[in-house]
Design goal:
Chains A, B: This is Putative periplasmic protein kinase ArgK and related GTPases of G3E family. 2 copies of one chain form a homodimer. The first copy, chain A, has about 325 residues and is an alpha/beta fold. The first copy, chain A, folds into 2 domains: about 210 residues, P-loop containing nucleotide triphosphate hydrolases (Rossmann fold); about 50 residues, no CATH class. Chain A is about 50% helix and about 10% strand. The first copy, chain A, contains 14 helices and 7 strands. A 7-stranded parallel beta sheet of chain A has the order 3-2-4-1-5-6-7, with helices on both faces. In chain A, helix 4 packs across helix 11, helix 6 runs parallel beside helix 7 and helix 12 crosses helix 14. Chain A is globular and about 60 Å long. In chain A, about 50% of the residues are buried. Chains A and B meet through helix 3, helix 5, helix 7, helix 8 and helix 9 of A and helix 3, helix 5, helix 7, helix 8 and helix 9 of B.
Chain lengths: ~325, ~325
């Protein structure tokens, strides 16, 4: 393939700041691929970030996350705001079909220069998503997005990570998945800043709303100062119904955080999650290096062999790995 | 709640070896909860393990993983084999509903003393699944399971982990998700030891089989010795059709691995994945300790504040974390 020309990062960052979609896309690709130049990129972006609000959307498959995200984009654009969308896909070689379908629904925004849409996959790097998503957020921030919507696809640890990244987290529910509300119990109360009961034209919407409100009444905690009470908004995202209410709820949450001098929490949480993810990726790479050393009779391979032979338990083996990594 | 009586691990292990379901369940709960006594448990189980074959089942949502797993249990039981099932659920507060539905389908095996069925969740511990699943496998192995089926629920990094744990990996597909086959491209070829095209009575089954075979013909690699060619089995799991063929394919793969002196690969891969997961969990805990130190002005919190203020880039902050962890 010959030699690959060096990427001109400064040029890309300058173009991204002008809102050139291709530059934004290339920068996010660098992030996703774990480019060795990410340090440089972080430094180049830093002066141009700190403005975008991050809104996370999460919920079970089938509640309508993509449709709601798309409807939110429409509403925010009508309001003149520049919008980024990061659809966070857990890494999987098997997820292609469904995800492509989801992305197609975003098609209406594909030609709007005020919208950047990007699916993020970890491409098999464990922990990669946690490190890559904050960096992709910085790219969109530098590109002038007022709001970045981070949508999780599917269920999994990615939700937890997305919550750590968002200034405001929307938990989506749908009627008829009411068992889920019960099963999820306290979990969703803790992460939600706003609830959206989507498909609210279906039977059972009232029951879902009531159930949520009941759960919240049981879980009120006023310890440590006043707390935000998550509003419950009814939406029919496919028809655009209730989306303005959802935008209002998002803005209300932001205003409340500002009034309580808590706007800094989201950025600090993001920075913390990112530092931790980068540090862990570094430590993981050091562990992997152990397996590379000495060829096939590598340190990690040898330890595994001793565990299989019953000479060593996996905890003792892990202790040796940690000692090696700690130098 | 008063003091919790100490668990008698030796007694539990002895009972589990007798096949007492409650003992098996309690041991797996200890594993899942990250009990501080896992080291002890690993040592107590070690002499009684090394016999079970691990079969991983993976594929997109909707292809019929639970139904196929259940049908496989029936077939293996008819064959007189003791069977364990671990349904690996990515941790999520939102996944309750669908998962409960899946588990209900396993109900027919609930009263069979030769079957142990367990859902595994990470309960929010990142990396927890990777560490906990091998340990749960050891419990089922010690409990006398001849075969343990590890089924992933949903998509995500869990697939990658399951592949690392299995002796034989079954990738399930279904007709009409053919776009998925294209999208997934090489990914599924690399992880599959056996393909099952489920719902094979539906339109498009032939096309899916052909597409798979075509992809395999393009991807044949004979580098480094002969390679196993994954068979493609047609099943209608809900009717039990083709399940005997699937069992035969699993046994063929095992026989081929034995003939090529490669039976040790699965156990070594499992041990390696487990050692790495435990080591990473240890290192992660050390990072978290940094955030606990010095109260709210903690080391990690302070670094995050400096990143937000633009005084430090996240990579430099992570370097400081890694240095601290490495002591």
């Amino acid at each position: 393939m010959g030699s690959v020309p060096a990427v001109d990062l400064d040029r890309l960052v300058a173009d991204a700041r002008e809102g050139v979609p291709r530059a934004v896309g290339r920068l996010i690709s660098l992030v996703e691929d774990g480019s060795p130049r990410l340090r440089e990129l972080a430094a180049a972006l830093a002066p141009h970030t700190g403005r975008a609000r991050v809104v996370g959307l999460t919920g079970s498959p089938g509640v309508g996350k993509s449709t709601t995200t798309s409807a939110l984009v429409t509403a925010l654009r009508a309001d003149g705001r520049r919008v980024g969308v990061l659809a966070v896909d857990p890494s999987s070689p098997f997820s292609g079909g469904a995800l492509l379908g989801d992305r197609v629904r975003m098609g209406e925004h594909a030609t709007d220069p005020g919208v950047f849409i990007r699916s993020m996959a970890t491409r098999g790097h464990l922990g990669g998503l946690a490190a890559a998503t904050p960096q992709a957020l910085r790219v969109l921030d530098a590109a002038g997005c007022d709001v970045v919507l981070v949508e999780t696809v599917g269920v999994g640890q990615s939700e937890v990570e997305v919550v750590a990244l968002a200034d405001t987290t929307v938990v989506l529910l749908a009627p008829g998945m009411g068992d889920g509300v019960q099963a999820a119990k306290a979990g969703i109360l803790e992460v939600a800043d706003v609830f959206a009961v989507n498909k609210a034209d279906r039977d059972g919407a009232d029951a879902t709303v009531r159930e949520l409100q009941h759960m919240m009444s049981l879980n009120r905690r006023e310890v440590g100062g006043p707390s935000w009470r998550p509003p419950v908004v009814r939406t029919v995202a496919s028809a655009g119904t209730g989306i303005d209410d959802l935008v209002t709820a998002l803005d209300d949450h932001r205003a409340w955080m500002a009034d309580h001098d808590r706007l800094g929490e989201g950025p600090r949480r993001r920075a913390r999650a990112e530092i931790e993810a980068i540090a862990l990726a570094d430590l993981r790479a050091r562990i992997r290096e152990l397996s590379g050393r000495l060829g096939s009779g590598s340190a990690l391979g040898e330890l595994a062999g001793r565990v299989v032979a019953g000479e060593l338990d996996p905890y003792a083996a892990a202790d040796e790995v940690v000692s090696s990594v700690r130098g």
